[in-house]
Amino acid sequence: MSTTPDPLSPTVDDVAALIRARTKDSSGNEIGTFTDETRPTAAQAQEAIDHQVTLLYTRVGSIGPGCSGIAQMCAAYGAAAEIELSYFPEQARTDRSPYQFLLQRYEQLLTGVEQCVLGNLPGEDGDDGVAWPYRHGTAIATSGVVNDHYTGRWWPVLQPVTPPVVEPVEAPADE
Questions:
Q1: Is the pLDDT reported for residue 63 higher than 50?
Q2: Could you give the maximum distance between any two Cα atoms of the chain, in Å?
Q3: What are the tens digits of pLDDT across the range 64-79?
Q4: Domains of the chain: total
Q5: Cβ distance 33 to 10 under 8 Å?
Q6: What is the mean pLDDT of the chain?
Q7: Which phi and psi angles does 131 have, rounded to 5°?
Q8: CA-to-CA distance for 32 and 133, rounded, in angstroms?
Q9: 135 forms bridges with which residues in the sheet?
Q10: Which residue from 57, 81, 88, 169 puts its CA 20 to 30 A from 26's CA?
Q11: Is 149 exposed, middle or buried (0-12, 13-18, 19+ CB in 10 A)?
């Protein structure tokens, strides 16, 4: 993995804060973060973080500064869930593990990251300053009419066409 931390990467301490009970040393003392004495170690926790950041980029593409906070939180929850599943699999399906909660929170945050990147959060501006509701995914509508077209709020109302009434024309009489 890279030696330069990604700007969207949460810290080992961020992940440890979500699963503090997993930061115990071999004597059972809760350390509060991952170290060389915990299971997983700090290096192993960092590996889970790196996996989650890679998955975020794969899932949503480029993530700008306006979405970095929610992306970091999403990666932290994903890394915590990965640690639970990888290091404590026997507990992951029981009430002895926060795995299901972490996974549910991760999925909610992932949806939030996707919507943030797309600019589809009401009241929020996208990274390029284009405000809701004139932004739809990667398409930016430059007018309200175009916006309404993309959202399906405006469609031309089709009126039935009535053919014109044509009066029969009498042929001229032969003289």
A1: yes
A2: 125
A3: 888 889 999 999 999 9
A4: 2
A5: no
A6: 78
A7: -85, 155
A8: 43
A9: 140
A10: 81
A11: middle
> CB of 63 within 8 A of CB of 56?
yes
Round to the nearest angstrom and report the end-to-end CA distance of the chain.
103
CB atoms within 10 A of CB 143: 9
Residue 64: which of 107, 128, 12 has the closest Cα? 128
26 and 74 housed in the same domain: yes
Give the range of the structural domain holding residue 98, as residue numbers without chain letter: 12-118
20 and 103, same domain (yes or no): yes
Tell me the per-residue pLDDT of 34-56, one tens digit each, with 9 for 90 and over: 999 999 999 999 999 999 999 99
Whether 93 and 47 share a structural domain: yes
Read off the pLDDT of residues 101-157 as tens digits, 9 standing for 90 and up. 999 999 999 998 988 888 765 444 444 454 444 444 444 444 455 545 545 544 444
